[in-house]
User: Which sequence fits this backbone?
């Protein structure tokens, strides 16, 4: 379900509590300022003479990025100061020892509410920490050791807690808020932060929901699981008109679309939003014009609110008061403003946004309101760059809904989880428009261009602006051939064994839409069609057959754990267990491989994780007259996490080697051998281009090219 569609309770973010702690913790939120909100409302519309019209060619090829290359840090990104402390169990814990995975620091004063509820929200996530590569560390502040110990024991926090009762760490970080959450990325730079928490309502749910989004964890609060069209009912309002004193309820809005905005009369971003809303509403015929409900989150006097709005020329509507902030709590408005909702005529939520980005929010809101009102939707695509899925999804609702059930939708999240979201050699296939004008870049890091989005496959602005982006099918010119588009990322270096015909159904909008809810849930949690990653035609010959030509590689391998994997089973008394032998020998039970039922001592060459365990059978590769190229799988040019991890992961799984997926590069470097020979990537006689393609096609449908 769309993150914009459900009534989330948003908490304000970071740096407000650390190192920039002199700034206020609450108030308005937003990203950029434009010249005027009215101009922003029109900015996305194509204009004569602009470059927003159709383009005849695909964008220029992006420059090649070296393996492991990372983007430079922005000037406003800050590393966390080094610190260490002693846990309640007496263990010394230093921040430097935790780097390499994400760290969630929970600063709390056990005597200040709502520390318990925040801790419970974090505790509920602890079971997912290992699978998503983060650790939770509590830091008790502002109390004494005895009180802190009792508090942690009472609430049974499953994560370590450092005792900072003396305030050494908090002073070092210049922390002023008694309760705060701060994320540290794998390199030690500060990420998101939360410094304000509601004290009423379901605090645990509010904090947990916010953390799930920020940590990019699977959404567990998505209404009807597997559903496509999820529009939650709007909560009750119960706000009071400043003009009449009458109470307005949600049911009073039925029969016509509505826009609900929670605002602060002194907030510049709210001023921009309200001005843009005025322009947008005037563009819709009066008979279908949505109703505006503007709710003040301030406890200032009505006179002060009216005066402030009048001064800004924004006194075109009747503001509403929210006694006791009850509506704000029900609608999940606990942090920065403006928070804007678009309701349909049945008072279901079609859109939710927090903050105000004047570069794009006015255009999105104009399109959303037009859609909700049932009038013509203006196509306000980004005239100079990429618009993002949320814009495409306004008109292409079903396509957008089905896309969210694909791995493409969370492609960027996988980089964040693996600490690779700053890798320039990786990010291009996990975002929209990298290295292209108006596309994803590390300076802005636009959230709306994360993931493999609509414009990754259909071009900038889709066929509206890029009609020739997708080539015509040679056999059926009336159709498009997406295989060349897919192959730019799903290539042998990054997607071994990829077969377009087999995998396309998993991203087909039409096919996903026709699925049942249960099938869509399974699709979201699946790993794709089964595929054998290693060639399987030839017999195995053992590692000794490789030694004469690959002497240095053999020596490196032999000294590592793989070189004596069988002996570890003997030492553990498990040399006769088939489940263990399958991963501690070469080609267990396969042609030419380790023979079941035969002692390890009788077949020592195969009683280890040999060359063929990773590179495939060598029967067609060795021997007089054998073709050297194209008969074995070279891994030197492959992506460590995209390809090699899948091969290693068949044995190094969560049951046998938990956390391996986040340490794969480190493990590979410890035993890396061989070079990237030019023949590895040649189109002719290459194992990963010719032989593997034929093998996988044969496995898929029995009809090689």
Assistant:
């Amino acid at each position: 379900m769309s993150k914009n569609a459900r009534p989330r309770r948003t908490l304000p973010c970071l740096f407000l509590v650390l190192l920039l702690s002199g700034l206020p913790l609450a108030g308005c939120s937003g990203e950029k300022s434009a010249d005027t909100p009215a101009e922003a409302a029109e900015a996305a519309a194509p204009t004569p003479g602009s470059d927003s019209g159709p383009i005849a060619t695909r964008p220029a090829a992006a420059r090649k990025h070296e393996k492991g290359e990372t983007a430079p840090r922005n000037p406003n990104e800050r590393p966390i100061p080094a610190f260490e402390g002693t846990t309640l169990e007496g263990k010394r814990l230093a921040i430097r020892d935790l780097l390499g995975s994400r760290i969630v620091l929970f600063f709390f004063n056990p005597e200040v509410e709502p520390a318990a509820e925040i801790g419970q929200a974090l505790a509920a996530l602890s079971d997912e920490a290992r699978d998503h590569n983060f650790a939770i560390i509590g830091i008790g502040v502002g109390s004494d050791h005895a009180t802190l110990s009792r508090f942690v024991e009472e609430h049974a926090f499953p994560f370590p807690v450092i005792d900072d009762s003396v305030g050494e760490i908090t002073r070092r970080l210049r922390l002023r808020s008694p309760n705060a959450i701060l994320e540290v990325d794998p390199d030690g730079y500060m990420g998101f932060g939360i410094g304000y928490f509601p004290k009423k309502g379901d605090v645990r749910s509010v904090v947990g929901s916010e953390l799930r989004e920020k940590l990019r964890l699977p959404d567990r609060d998505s209404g009807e699981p597997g559903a496509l069209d999820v529009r939650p009912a709007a909560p009750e309002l119960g706000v009071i008109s400043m003009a009449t004193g009458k109470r307005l309820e949600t049911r009073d809005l039925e029969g016509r679309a509505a826009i609900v905005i929670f605002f602060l009369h002194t907030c510049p971003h709210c001023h921009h939003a309200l001005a843009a809303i005025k322009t947008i509403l005037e563009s819709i015929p009066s008979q279908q014009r949505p109703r505006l409900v503007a709710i003040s989150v301030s406890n200032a006097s009505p006179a002060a609110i009216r005066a402030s709005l009048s001064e800004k020329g924004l006194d075109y509507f009747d503001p509403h008061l929210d006694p006791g902030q009850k509506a704000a709590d029900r609608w999940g408005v606990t942090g920065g403003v403006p928070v804007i909702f678009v309701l349909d005529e049945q008072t279901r939520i079609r859109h939710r946004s927090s903050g105000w980005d004047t570069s794009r929010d006015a255009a999105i809101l104009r399109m959303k309101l037009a859609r909700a009102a049932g009038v013509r939707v203006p196509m306000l695509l980004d005239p100079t760059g990429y618009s993002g899925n949320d814009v495409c999804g306004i008109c292409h609702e079903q396509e957008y809904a089905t896309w969210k059930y694909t791995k493409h939708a969370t492609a960027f999240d996988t980089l964040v989880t693996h600490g690779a979201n700053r890798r320039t050699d990786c990010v291009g296939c996990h975002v929209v428009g990298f290295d292209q004008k108006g596309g994803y870049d590390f300076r802005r890091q636009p959230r709306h261009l994360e993931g493999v989005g609509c414009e990754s496959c259909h071009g900038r602005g889709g066929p509206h602006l890029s009609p020739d982006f997708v080539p015509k099918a040679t056999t059926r010119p009336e159709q498009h051939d997406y295989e060349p588009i897919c192959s730019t990322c799903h290539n042998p270096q990054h997607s071994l064994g990829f077969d377009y015909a087999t995998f396309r159904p998993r991203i087909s909008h039409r096919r996903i839409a026709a699925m049942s809810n249960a099938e869509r849930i399974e699709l979201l949690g699946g790993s794709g069609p089964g595929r054998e990653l290693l060639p399987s035609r030839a017999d195995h010959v053992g590692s000794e057959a490789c030694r004469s030509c690959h002497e240095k590689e053999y020596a490196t391998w032999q000294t590592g754990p793989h070189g004596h994997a069988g002996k570890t089973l003997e030492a553990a008394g498990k040399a006769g267990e088939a489940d263990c032998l399958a991963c501690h020998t070469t080609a267990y039970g396969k042609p030419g491989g380790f023979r079941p039922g035969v002692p390890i001592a009788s077949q020592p060459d195969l009683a280890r994780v040999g060359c063929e365990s990773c590179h495939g059978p060598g029967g067609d590769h060795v021997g007089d007259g054998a073709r050297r190229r194209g008969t074995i799988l070279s891994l030197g040019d492959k992506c460590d996490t995209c390809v090699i991890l899948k091969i290693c992961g068949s044995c190094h799984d969560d049951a046998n080697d938990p956390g391996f997926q986040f340490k794969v590069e480190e493990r590979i470097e410890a035993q890396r051998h061989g070079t990237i020979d030019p023949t590895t990537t040649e189109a002719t006689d290459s194992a990963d281009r010719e032989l593997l393609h034929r093998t996988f096609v044969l496995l898929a449908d029995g009809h090689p090219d």
